[in-house]
Amino acid sequence: MPPIAPRIAEMNAGGSDGWEVFYRARAMAASGLPVTELTIGEHDIRTDPAILHAMHASAMGGHTGYAAVPGTPELRAAIAERVQARTGIATGPDNVLVTPGAQAALFAAHMLACPPGAAALYVDPCYTTYPGTIRAASARAVPVATRPEAGFLPDADALEAAAAQTGARSLLVNTPNNPTGAVYPRATLMGIARVARACDLWLISDEVYEGQVWQGTHLSPRALPGMSERTLVIGSMSKGHAMTGARLGWIVGPEAAVAHLIDLATVTTYGVPGFIQDAALFALREGPAHEAQVAAPFARRRRIAEAVLRDAPGLRLLPAEGAMYLMLDIRATGLSGAAFAQGLLETQRIAVMPGESFGRAAAGHVRVAMTVPDAAFEDALRRLASFAADRSTRAARA
User: Fold this and answer.
1) Quick one: which of 8, 29, 125, 278 has the fewest CB in 10 Å?
2) Where do the Aminotransferase class I/classII large domain residues begin and end (predicted)?
């Protein structure tokens, strides 16, 4: 066959895409083996029936043709109103582009920010698709490592040094953070904003977990001084409204930038189905109470995890400040995150994500998704803790 373009052939940099344990767990489950999956951020509840009824009514009412590429006027206005209320920054419909999920928004944001070959910074550890998304946009993915001892919070001096060394054009941050659960405090975000201004960077802020904060307060960097004109905020209906399969996200940014992003959408996605947009509009109008209801199980399971794992030998639960995940430090077992996850799957039929799937900075850790019912979750954590204790005892004897 003819050659494949490098931006696609080299999207994973010749390495893993980070999903091996997930794929193996799904294959085991498909073969009939009982597996407790604590891998991906998929709710154990489904989309609220009222939202599905709104989607059905819209489709049956005829909103099945081409929808407005930037998003329906009503949905763009509702997203703008939501963002303005939460950030205090003036936001109108022309600041909003509706996208087929946050993943498409991340790709579009990097296409806007980065000329071919330009460096794009991201914080390590990160959501697994970040480096590949950057490479698919023909940019160079440059990780900036964080340390578990510092709560995986990015250091402004390290960011500035990386930007200066590479001539970076963008910086991608994510708070509340997947995979670490960190909620960036104001001081950290002020440092990030300082670097973005000093190095003339586009700041791409992934805020899909904004409604899942268990400790601290979510602050969008777009709300900081001098940042609204250089920040692209990524949002989504997936996590806060349990609408992962609907694929409805957005970008909020300067009007001029959004106008160019609409041009990109016109020649790529050509918009989002109208009946899905109408369902999203209905869901947003349900207000904060609905989001709180969706988030409640994760807050409850966080408390379960703290009780079960507080004094567990062989592992350490990092502070879970936000999002639907737990990050466990398992270095005392003497195993890598990948070896721990594979061993746990083989012996306990429990699937978790290796820290290495999210970057080198998360080596020796595993990520646990809080996405099964409480009783099954507690049982899985107890068996995971027993596995870690056994392996740490072996490591101490070796």
Assistant:
1) 8
2) 36-384
**In the predicted model, what is the mean pLDDT of the chain?**
96
How far apart are alpha carbons 292 and 346 in whole angstroms? 36
Residue with tokens 């990030």: 192
Q: Which domain holds residue 367?
A: 6-46+289-397
Question: What are the tens digits of pLDDT across the range 342-363?
Answer: 999 999 999 999 999 999 999 9
Number of domains in the chain: 2
Contacts 24+ apart (CB under 8 A), 49-53: 50/282, 50/286, 51/241, 51/243, 51/279, 51/282, 51/283, 51/286, 52/279
265-270 long-range contacts, Cβ below 8 Å, gap at least 24? 265/69, 265/70, 265/97, 265/99, 265/108, 266/69, 268/108, 269/99, 269/100, 269/104, 270/66, 270/69
Q: Is 30 exposed, middle or buried (0-12, 13-18, 19+ CB in 10 A)?
A: exposed
Provide mean pLDDT across the span 304-316: 96
Kindly report the length of the chain.
398
**Pair 38, 84 in one domain:** no
Element (H, E) at 329: strand 325-329
Q: How far is CA 267 from the centre of its chain?
A: 26
Last residue of a domain, one of 263, 286, 309: 286
192-230 pLDDT tens trace:
999 999 999 999 999 999 999 999 999 999 999 999 999
Q: How far is CA 259 from CA 236, 251, 272, 319, in A?
A: 20, 11, 17, 40
> Are residues 129 and 235 both part of a single domain?
yes
| Same domain, residue pair 293 and 281 | no
Q: Are residues 326 and 350 in the same domain?
A: yes
User: What confidence category does residue 395 fall into, taking pLDDT thresholds of 50, 70 and 90?
Assistant: confident
